[in-house]
Amino acid sequence: MAKKPEILHERRSVEYDRDHWALLERLRSRALQIMQALEAAGVRSFVYGSVARGDVSRNSDVDIVVPYTISSYKVEVALTGVTRRELAQATPSMVLKGHIYLENDTCVSFPLFKMKPRELEFYKWGGQVGIEEIQKGVRVHGVDKRLLLIEPTAAGHTESGVVGHETEVAKKLGVGVGIAQERVRVLMRRDTIGRTGIYRTHVLSQTESFEEVAKTLRDTDPALRRTVLRREK
């Protein structure tokens, strides 16, 4: 079941039990293994979301992002256990991303063209960590899908509301207030009218490459072509 936004007026504390810490360790170990394989291939990556913050659950995925354009071959050659490859674009004006799904609910994503600053801030908004931070056991602040700010503590984390506190939360996370306002607007609207789906999804066959399909889409879709050209200026 999708998590619904919450309007939280008071800060509350959550204490992790032994099972929670063990689950977090397993998920972080899985992320570290993949990120180290990517690093060995010359690809810098981050894990973001609950695995970075620490507030994991049994339904948590391991989401890894390469936040810059790169040859898909360099990414794919480092990965094993691939179950699906797809291109996805949330709206006509947003970045086209490659998603490589692996076993054990793990996904590695990367952009097919230059990302906007706000698109990069999305990952920091939710919390992101690199290899060194995982190795040191660092957990970071970030906002979950309930629009709650998660702040790690020695025993677990604290939760506080984002709605009505967008400027304060953005400053704490080191992002622009624009991403805070956007995420509140998107998630509140989704809660009201339901998920509306994404603009484009293309599952790749075994013989297709990300770049080839992206070029075909760009050549045949004027909206995508305009989006790419605007970002190349």
* Helix content class: 40-55%
Given the C-alpha coordinates, what overall shape results? globular
> How would a textbook summarize the main sheet?
7 strands, mixed
Count of distinct structural domains: 1
Tally of alpha and pi helices: 9
Descriptors:
seven-stranded mixed β-sheet; alpha+beta; 233 residues; 40% helix; four-stranded antiparallel β-sheet; 9 helices; single chain
Structural overview:
The protein has a seven-stranded mixed β-sheet with strand order 7-2-3-6-5-4-11. The model has no long low-confidence stretch (mean pLDDT 93). The protein has 233 residues and is of the alpha+beta class. The chain has one domain. It has nine helices and eleven strands. Strand 5 and strand 6 (106-111) form a beta hairpin.
Give the arrangement of secondary structure elements.
Blueprint: E1 12-15, H1 18-40, E2 46-48, H2 50-53, E3 62-65, H3 72-76, E4 82-89, E5 97-102, E6 106-111, H4 117-126, E7 128-129, H5 131-135, E8 142-143, E9 148-152, E10 156-161, H6 166-173, H7 177-193, E11 200-203, H8 210-220, H9 222-232
Parallel strand pairs: 3-6
Antiparallel strand pairs: 1-10, 2-3, 2-7, 4-5, 4-11, 5-6, 8-9, 9-10
Helix pairs in contact: 6-7, 8-9
